[in-house]
Amino acid sequence: MSRATVCLTVDFDGVSSWIHSFDEGDSPTNLSRGLFGVDVGAPRLLDLFDEHGVTTTWFVPGHTAESFPEAVESVWAAGHDIQHHGWSHTRPGTYPDAASERADIRRGIEAIEALTGRRPTGYRSPSWDFSEHTLSLLQELGFEWDSSQMGREFRPYRLREGWKASPDAPFERGEETALVEIPVSWQRDDFPAFAFDRRRGFADERAVFDMWLAQFEWMYRNVDGGVYVLTVHPQIMGYSHRLERLESLIETVAEYPDTEFVTLDSVSDRF
């Protein structure tokens, strides 16, 4: 087992996040941001990963796979893993019932199977959200792992069912399931940091990349066998200046002895 494992993950939302998750999603300008990710950002990321011999995990909504099949096929053809990210990019907590959520997940499975010829083993929920039904649906539909929650920083763990969070009683953790959680962090996601918002303005991008490196370095020093998950979006990370910073981060991390870049599926298999 390596001292440090790095998982570069790509949420290939395309236009689905603008249509299904945000107000004014049908704005031509917002949709063009998604199209930049499809037409420009994704090819640039694929070139970067190929140059450095890094295999990554792409979470692809079925909407993206069906809307832009050639773009998604290029990810698969380059040897990267494709996993489930809903059919639509709809937050699970907004579905009216379990049946609606189940239908969307099943449709996403079918879209990935049609493109890759195999059933996805892993799930990442849109906007890292779960409903009260999500965990049981993932178990019902045969998923092996998830990467949406934040109960650890650098170690996988098992998701629990039957927990209780009553406001007037002690929290009950529930019982472990077979589903492996490979945790994420808002602190290692490019969208909240870099997606332009008129109310917020611009982030200090150098500081964000420095933070990402500092988190890896802390893990390397303190967590033997730690798993570092970074999440990027082609429509965010695909810009020229960010690609250079991402490349520098990859090169720096790769210099640490006994560090490897792997897919989340590989992490789940080892766990």
Automatic annotation (TrEMBL):
It comes from Halobellus rubicundus. Pfam families: Polysacc_deac_1 (PF01522). InterPro entries: Glyco_hydro/deAcase_b/a-brl, NODB_dom, PgdA-like. This is Polysaccharide deacetylase. Residues 16-271 form the NodB homology domain.
